[in-house]
């Protein structure tokens, strides 16, 4: 019972992690980029499995009591494991942005000393400050 409970808890944690990683970013955010990703899924698939069906028919073979053996190929439904390629849309921060919680934050290579980073490598300086990193007074 403890082993089954542990497995259910572990599955729940994995599922919540997967949901968090796939659903955390807002796809309508202009700083969020998305791409299609392929992944493999194991499936049970049916197929027509051929087999040799033996049957008897009347014939002139006196040694076999007028009964002759015949063969024909017949098919029965069988199952096998197969791989199917599936696709899903993945969201991630666009180049020049990094993920912080549910948001994509612009990344400035140099720190904005007296201002804030408003887009990749672009600082918006406080009044009275200038330069690429807002350090010139």
UniProtKB/TrEMBL annotation:
Any one cellular-component term (Gene Ontology): plasma membrane
Location within or outside the cell: Cell membrane; Membrane
Membrane-traversing stretches: none
Annotated signal peptide: 1-24
Protein name as annotated: Multiple epidermal growth factor-like domains protein 11
Coiled coil: none
Species: Charadrius vociferus (Killdeer)
Keyword Transmembrane helix: yes
Alphabetical list of PANTHER family matching this protein: DELTA-RELATED (PTHR24052), MULTIPLE EGF LIKE DOMAINS 11 (PTHR24052:SF13)
């Amino acid at each position: 019972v403890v082993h089954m409970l542990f497995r259910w808890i572990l599955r729940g944690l994995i599922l919540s992690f997967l949901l968090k990683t796939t659903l955390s970013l807002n796809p309508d955010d202009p700083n969020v980029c998305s791409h299609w990703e392929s992944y493999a899924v194991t499936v049970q698939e049916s197929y027509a499995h051929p087999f040799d069906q033996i049957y008897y028919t009347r014939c002139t073979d006196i040694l076999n009591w007028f009964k002759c053996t015949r063969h024909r190929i017949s098919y029965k439904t069988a199952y096998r494991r197969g791989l199917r390629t599936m696709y899903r849309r993945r969201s991630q921060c666009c180049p020049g942005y990094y993920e912080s919680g549910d948001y994509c934050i612009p990344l400035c290579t140099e720190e904005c000393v007296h201002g804030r980073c408003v887009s990749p490598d672009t600082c918006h300086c406080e009044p009275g400050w200038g330069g690429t990193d807002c350090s010139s007074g």
